[in-house]
Amino acid sequence: MAKVSPFKFLQEVRSETEKVTWPTRRETAITTLMVFVMSASAAIFFLLADQVIRFGVTLVLGIGR
């Protein structure tokens, strides 16, 4: 593997970052909102699943009261 000077490396990094298509502020906001919505949905789903399982175990085994 060839050695690359730190200066050359930083030039190449800068060159590559200029080629990236960065998301717009609106796209970032929408994506962030979707992450929060999906996280809340998953939390609610697992809360409900936990409550149903707890109810079933309590009903069948009579424990967890």
UniProtKB/TrEMBL annotation:
Listed transmembrane segments: 29-49
Keyword field contains Cell membrane: yes
Annotated InterPro entries: SecE_bac, SecE_sf, Translocase_SecE/Sec61-g
Chief place where the protein resides: membrane
Subcellular location: Cell membrane; Membrane
Entry keyword set: Cell membrane, Membrane, Protein transport, Translocation, Transmembrane, Transmembrane helix, Transport
Pfam families: SecE
Source domain of life: Bacteria
GO molecular function: protein transmembrane transporter activity
GO BP terms, alphabetized: intracellular protein transmembrane transport; protein secretion; protein targeting; protein transport by the Sec complex
Membrane topology: Single-pass membrane protein
Record-level GO cellular component terms: plasma membrane
Job of this protein: Essential subunit of the Sec protein translocation channel SecYEG. Clamps together the 2 halves of SecY. May contact the channel plug during translocation.
Family indicated by similarity: Belongs to the SecE/SEC61-gamma family.
Quaternary data: Component of the Sec protein translocase complex. Heterotrimer consisting of SecY, SecE and SecG subunits. The heterotrimers can form oligomers, although 1 heterotrimer is thought to be able to translocate proteins. Interacts with the ribosome. Interacts with SecDF, and other proteins may be involved. Interacts with SecA.
Protein name: Protein translocase subunit SecE
Organism: Rhodoplanes elegans
Gene designation per UniProt: secE
